[in-house]
Amino acid sequence: MAAVKVYGWAVSPYVSRALLALEEAGVDYELIPMNRGSGDHRTPDHLARNPFGQVPVLEDGDLTLFESRAIARHVFRKHKPELLGSGSLDRSAAVDVWQEVEAQQLHPAAGAVVVECVFAPFLGRARDQAAVDANVEKLRNVLRVYEARLAAHRYLAGDFLSAADLSHFPILHYFMGTEYAGVVLEGHPHVKAWWEDLAARPAARKVAEFMPLGGAAKKQQE
Amino acid sequence: MAPMKVYGWAVSPWMARVLVCLEEAGVEYEIVPMSRSGGDHRRPEHLARNPFGEIPVLEDGDLTLYQSRAIARYILRKCKPELLREGNLAESATVDVWVEVESHQLHPILRDIVVQCIINPYIGLDRDQAVVDENLAKLRPLLQVYESRLSSSPYLAGDHVSLADLSHFGFMRYFMASEYTGVVDDYPRVKAWWDALLARPSVKKVIAGMPPDFGMGSGKMP
């Protein structure tokens, strides 16, 4: 029985962020599946783990953590600090900047498109095309910055793979399964190359198995 | 050692996050004031510092950083690392959790209320009371979680202040200046925590540059 447990539904890009960190760090863990449809996240047991009633939750020995980005940071800090740029003020700052860029610039736009195109049907509503269009436009503006960055550096934080790159994988994986994949891939040769490199990583491939593109419906219902 | 430079407008709650950390760390710094209404953040010289065209931006020697939470982490890691607790896995993870909670749970709610109640009147937009009410309904259960948290320890990540607490300052400042400040009175430990933050010399210094109406009432559009 693994000392590290992750609670949640792996189809969630947030849960997958945590799983990707564990996979990259080579940490032995157990995924405790939960069912969103059954309201598993609102049971007293789960609220005792995460009072916000969300997933993922990580249990690492005595430590219980929530918020996927905090979980990923913890995993890297403990097992793969180089992925946080630890020990170097400049490197760690660059990692932090691009983790925040993902959270504040890319995720809101790409995430909104994913919710509308991938998850809306299973949340029982029609796609909001106006929201998709507005967010695709925002994403285009954000990707201009990424293209310039990745033209100058192999990875987002510089010449080294970091938690910042990895943090992008789950939401972009889903985005690439929508009809808007070209927004990322076309006209952004450096973003494309960076993405393909990221997606080819064994840890990313492993985690992608939990996030079937087009199979989200079936998984959500389970 | 040349002082650090922070570019932006001091009334910004994102700017406040950085300024509070600089003050806590006792770092020598200068504010390079910019004009939002003058569009300084969209000029080429600013885009060269931050391609997303936002503030704050920090310059420390050759290093230029953006995204306020990344800047805050850098300042504290360099000059007051105990406020990140990075030497202790459990404590640093707890700091990270509550930095993320502010970012993804509380911030969107406080921001929407502040925009509707404080900013909109000055920029000639009607308040959308439905938006305010929707956010207030989300705020109360959130504050209940904070109340429970703060009954275990005086600060979010333990017995002493950390980035987790300081990161809340900017948006709380404006929310607590709105007509809904009384909501927090129902959560006495949250109120006490807020009052303790207000009593800190760093906070007193930074709040002096943050009139409750963003300066707009006296005709000083940021």
UniProtKB/TrEMBL annotation, chain A:
TM region(s), chain numbering: none
GO molecular function, one term: glutathione transferase activity
SUPFAM superfamilies membership: GST C-terminal domain-like, Thioredoxin-like
Residue ranges of domain GST C-terminal in the record: 88-222
Transferase is among the record's keywords: yes
Group of enzyme by EC: transferase
Gene Ontology BP annotations: glutathione metabolic process; response to herbicide
Secretion signal, residue range per the UniProt entry: none
UniProt xrefs under CDD domains: GST_C_Phi (cd03187), GST_N_Phi (cd03053)
PANTHER family in the cross-refs: GLUTATHIONE S-TRANSFERASE 4 (PTHR43900:SF17), GLUTATHIONE S-TRANSFERASE RHO (PTHR43900)
Similarity comment text for this entry: Belongs to the GST superfamily. Phi family.
Protein name listed in UniProt: glutathione transferase
UniProtKB/TrEMBL annotation, chain B:
PROSITE patterns referenced in this protein's UniProt entry, alphabetically: GST_CTER, GST_NTER
InterPro entries documented for this protein: Glutathione-S-Trfase_C-like (IPR010987), Glutathione-S-Trfase_C_sf (IPR036282), Glutathione_S-Trfase (IPR040079), Glutathione_S-Trfase_N (IPR004045), GST_C (IPR004046), GST_Phi_C (IPR034347), Thioredoxin-like_sf (IPR036249)
Principal EC category: transferase
Keywords of this entry: Transferase
Protein transport among keywords: no
EC number: 2.5.1.18
Gene Ontology biological process terms, A to Z: glutathione metabolic process; response to herbicide
GST N-terminal domain mapped to chain residues: 2-83
Reactions accelerated catalytically: RX + glutathione = an S-substituted glutathione + a halide anion + H(+)
Residues of the GST C-terminal domain: 88-214
GO molecular function: glutathione binding; glutathione transferase activity
Domain of life: Eukaryota
Family: Belongs to the GST superfamily. Phi family.
Protein name, as recorded: glutathione transferase
Species in which this protein is naturally found: Paspalum notatum var. saurae
Organismal lineage: Eukaryota, Viridiplantae, Streptophyta, Embryophyta, Tracheophyta
